[in-house]
Protein 1
Amino acid sequence: MAREVDVLSYLPPIFHEIKEMIEIAKVENPLLDALWQEIESALLDQFLLSATGRGIKRNEDMLRIVSMATESLETRRFRLLTRYNEQVPYTRPVLRNLLNTLLGENGYELTINTADKTLKIKIELTVKGMYEAVEQMIERITPQNMVITVELRYNQHSLLANYTHAQLATFTHEQLRNEVLT
C-alpha cells in the first residue's frame, strides 16, 4: 500500500507560491514517506503471512530459531508457521489437520501403523525446502515411542509416462527423480 505524501497539498493555496514553503515541503516529503513505510511495515509484521524480513527475524528470535543465511523468506515463514501451529496432545485428526494446513491436502502421504508404532510421511517435491521444518515439528508433537520417517515423495513412473523419450532426454536421471516437472 504505497502512499506518497505531499505536504504542500495540505497547506492553503496561498502558501503554494511561497518559495520557502515549497522548499520545506520538498525536505519534509521524503521524511514523511519513510515514516509511512515504517508504519506500514510495522502493521505487516504483526502477522506471519504478511511479515517482512524484519518481522520474521523478530519471531525467530522470540522462538530461538536460528535460520541459515541461504534460506528464503518463505522457508523461514513456513518454519515459524509450523512452530506456532503445533498442538499437543498428538491425535490423528490434529496431525492430519496440521499437515493439511501446512502442506495442502495433496502435499503429503501419511501412513500410521499403530501395531509397529511407526509413522511415515512422504512430502511432495514442491515443498522440498521445508522438509527439515516438517521433520522437526513431527518429532516435537508425536509420542517418543513412535519411529518417525519423513521422506520426499519422488517423481513416479506414472508421472513420467506422460512425457516422450525426447522430452525426458533433456534431463539427467537425478533431475527426473528429484525435480518438480511442469
Protein 2
Amino acid sequence: MDEREDHRQIVSLCEHVQTEWLRARAESLGGRVWSDGPLTWVDGPDGLILVFPETIDPSALERSIEQARNEERELVGAWVDNEMDASALAAAGFERGWAPWWLAADLAGIDAPADPRVHVGVDLEDVRDEQGHNGYDRMLGLARAQPERAFYAGIRIDGVLAGHAWSFVDGDVAGIFDLDVWPPFRRRGFGAALLHAVAAAAHGAGARTAVVGTSPQDAIIYRAQGFNRVGMSSTWWRHL
C-alpha cells in the first residue's frame, strides 16, 4: 500500500471517530440521531449536523432543511469527505466552512510523565470553575454514561481550572477532542499535559492510534507531540 492509500484509510478512520463522537454526545445528552436515505443526521450539543454522507439525495436534504426551518433553527451543518461531490450542498444553499486537518499518532509513542495537576475523570469543581453554574455538568454526562471509552481531563493551576481535553475510544482508535487552555495559562506546557493525560487514558482502554481534527494554526501542539498530518475534510453550513 502506498502512502496516499495509507493516509486515505486513516482519514476514513478519523471521519468515523468524529461521527461516533458526535453520535455519542447526542445520545448521552438528550439529543437524537436518525437517517433519511443515505443521510445520517446528529442533533446534539454541537447543533444539527449531517455526518459524512457517501452520497447526497437532494430531496432528503431539503426535507431536513425544511424540518430545521420549522424548528426555528438558525444553522445546519455538514461534515464532508473531500472526495465526495458536495455540489448538492452548494445547490441547497450551504457554504463551505473551515476545513479540519486530520492528524494521527501511534499512542505508544506519546509518552510523558503524568502531570499531577491534571485530573482525569468527572470533577464537579470543573463545572463551577468554568461555568459558574451546572450547565457544563450536563456536558460531562458522556463521561458518566460511557466511562470505558470517554475520558475527560482538566488541569488546575493554584486551584483554578486552566484548561481541559477529551479522548473518545472507538475500537483501537481514539479521537482527541476539545483540547483547550484558557488564554492566561497558555504557552506553559499545559496543553501538552492535557494531551498526554487523555491519550494515556485512551491507550489504557485499548486504543493504539490517536487522531484529531484541528485547524492549521492549532496543529502545532499536536505535531510537537508526534502527530502527523494525514489529510483533510470539509465542513459546510446553511444559515436559516
Protein 3
Amino acid sequence: MIDQQSYKKTYKPLILWMILFIAVCTLIPMLINQIFEQLFQITWGEGAEVRVILMFMVISIDGLMWMIYAGEYVYWINGGPSFEEAKAAGSEKRKAYAGAHLRVFLKMTLVCCVYIVISSFFRLPMLIDIVVIASAIVAAAIKTIPIRFN
C-alpha cells in the first residue's frame, strides 16, 4: 500500500510499457517462425504469427492493468479520477478501482485464450481472429465504463 505522502504522479512506467509493446509487436512476426522451426522443428500454419501477436496484445493489456493496480496509477485510466482525486482517496480505494478493471480484462484474456485454441484447431481465417479478439477487447473496455471511482 502506498501512503498519501509517497504517492507521486508519473508516466514513466506507461512510457516503458508502450516502448516494449511496440518493440515486441515488431519482433514477433520477424522471429516467431524462425524460433519455432529451429528450436522445436515446428512449422506453424498460416496466420500463426497473427494469433501470437493478438494474444500478446491481450496479455500486454493485462500487464498494463496489473501495472496500474500495483502502482495505483488509476489516473491513467480513461474516465478515471484525476491525480489529485486519486491521491486524496487513499490506497484501498485506488486498489479497489484498479482491481475491478483488472478483473474484467483478465476474464477477457481467458475468453481470448479459449478462442485462439479453438481457432487454431479449426484453422479459422485470420480476419475472423482479428475481429473476434478486437471485439473482445472493445467489449471488455465497454464493460469497465460503469466502474466508478466514487
Protein 4
Amino acid sequence: MAPTINPFILFFASIFTSNILLANFLGMCSFISISKDITSSNGLGMAVTMVMTITTALNWIVYNKIIVPLGLEYLRYIIFIIVIAAVVQILEMLIDRLSPNLYMSLGIFLPLITVNCAILGVSLFMQLRYYTFIQSIFYGLGSGLGWWLAIMALAAIRKRVDKSPNVPAALKGPGLTLIIIGIMAMAFMGFSGMLNVQ
C-alpha cells in the first residue's frame, strides 16, 4: 500500500531532511574523492542526479510490471543493478561525446556510478516504502539534487579551507574532510523537524 505523501513534500524532504548522503551516508566514496574540485563535483552531481531520477523511474516500472507479476522479487537487487548499469553506460557515452574534458576529469568515478550505493539505495527505498510512480520520480529527483547539493557544498568548503593558513597540519586532508562532512550532516539534520518521510 502506497503512503499518502505529497510528491512535493517528498521531493523537498529527500533534498534536505532525508538527504540520501548526509542522513543515510550512502554514496560516500565518490563524494569524498571528487569533491576536491568544484567543476568535477558539479559534473558528477549532475550525472548522479540524472542517473538517480531515470533509474528510480525505470526500476519502479520494472519492479511493478515485470518482477512482481512474474514472482521474481528475489532477483530485484540484480535487476535493479542491471538497469542502473545500462543507464550509466549510455550516460558515459553521452558525456564522452559532448564534454570530453568533463569525461577526463571524472575519470574512473563516472563508470563507478553504477556501483554507487546511493543510487541503488534510492531504488530500494522506493520499493520498500511502496511509493507510487509519481512519488518515485520526485523521490529520485530530490535525492539526486540532495546529493548534488551536498557534493557542491563540500567542494566549496574544501576549496576555502585548503587555502586557509589557520588549519593545523595534522587535520589537513581526510581528517578535516570527515569533520566537515559530520558538521554538514548535523546541519542538514536540523531541518528534520520540518519534513519527515521515514
